Structure formats: structure tokens, C-alpha cells
Amino acid sequence: MAQPRLGLTVGDIGFEDVQLPDLDPYLPTAVGLALGGLPSFGRTVDLLRSERGASSTRRNALIAGAAAAALAAVLVALSLLRSGAISSKQDDVDDQLATNAALQTEIDDLFDVQQRELEVDGLRQQVVGLLATDVSWSALLQEIARTIPNDVWLTEFTGQVTPAADAALPEGGPPPDTTDGTAPDTTGDTTGDATPDATPETPPTPVSAALGSLTFSATGLDYPSVSAWLQRIGEIPAFSGLWVPSASASASEGDGTVLVDFESNATLTTSANSRRAAELLGDGDE
Length: 286
Known about the structure:
single chain; alpha+beta
């Protein structure tokens, strides 16, 4: 609160002394004007615009202009920095889009590779299915030629391959593997006066994995040759249930040698598989 009376001596202005404190809010203007009019005070109150005031105004205007220019420069700098950051982000976005496009191209290429792999797998399965019952007949005949008794020779050989699930057993049913060396139960004159048919008992049907069936027509020197046939050919792993359903003896002209013509059947096992599927697929043994 202004108290101009503290530095003044107030004369008689028509108010009681106790009322003078109530005049403090109104005295500063009157006191200021009175002091400004005194020559001895040393300062003249000039309400008109002076040159000094104009200079101060220009200085203030320059300061304000400089401040505005500095603010503008700061704003420009911030704008440039922001623009640079945006440009950098845009470059990053462009780089990411290019990377995405390259990855999409690789994905498309890999999809084509995957489709080709599926096609190859399908073809591989077809090959496996087609070669599941493939038999190397030449190798089988070579095995028979190495194993057949010296006094027996083939006159006819028939082989039939069927899928394992549908493999049919030889007509009449094959017997179990014969390893005791006994010849078929036959009766008749072995001197050639008669040619009896040998009719062995029909054995039970074995249960084994089969690729197909085999039928042999052969001739041997007497019935022990037939027994040797059963013993030796029955040892070939590709054959199962080798048996002789019929045999007949006859004497050759001149020397009286007894010849036995016989039929023999067998089941072709999975051991006769050619293994070509494994070789084609790269799974075969070296």
C-alpha cells in the first residue's frame, strides 16, 4: 500500500489528521505532479513523446525484431530437422517395402519348389506302388539254374505276379515247405510197363506274404530226382510251399531208363522282389 505522507509534510488541506491515512490511495498522483513541477527536484515530467523515448522505442522494436528473427530461425531449423526425420523414415519405409517385395518373390519361388516336391513325392509313391510286385525273372531263373538237381531239367516255367493283397494261391492249394526229402506217394510199375499218376495228399494252405504263383513242368530220372527237386528248389527264399501235385513215370526206349514227368507249383514270396524301387529312390544298398 502506497504511503506518500511518510516522506512529506502535509499542510492544511481541509482534512483532520486522523483522516489523512484514508487519503493515501489518492495522494500518489497529486504528489507526483507536484514534485514534477519543482525545478529543484531535477527531473521534468514531460508527457509529450521525446527523442529519447523514440530511441528507446526503436531499440525495443529492434530487440523484438531480433527475437522474432531468432524464433523464426529456430522454427525453420526445427522444421528442417523434422523434414529430415520424415525423409529418413520414408527412406526406411521404402527400404522395408523393397525387402518385403524381395521376400515375397522368394516365397513365390519356394511355393513353386514346394509344388514340384509334392509332384515328385506323388511320382515317387506311384513308382513304389508299381514296383511293389516287380520281380527280376532273369535273376530268379539264374537262381533255379544254380540250385536245380543235375538229374532234373525244366521243360516249362510259368510265373504270375499279383498284388500282395490279391495274390492267389496255386490251384489246389500249396503244401507247406517240404524239407524231409520224401518223394510223392506213387504206385505203378517203374519198368515202363505203366505210367501211373502220382497223387499226393493235399496239404493245408500256408499263410505267407506272396507276390504271385509259379508253375513248373520238369522231367527227372526216376522218383528220387523228384524228391531232390523238392529239397533243393524248396531252399530258394523266393519260393514258398513248393510241392508236386502230379507225377508220371515212363521208360525211355532202348536203355530202359525210367523218366518221371512231373508238375510242381509254388508261391512267389516277397524275397523275389527286384528291389528296383529302392534303387530308383536311392534307398538301395551300395
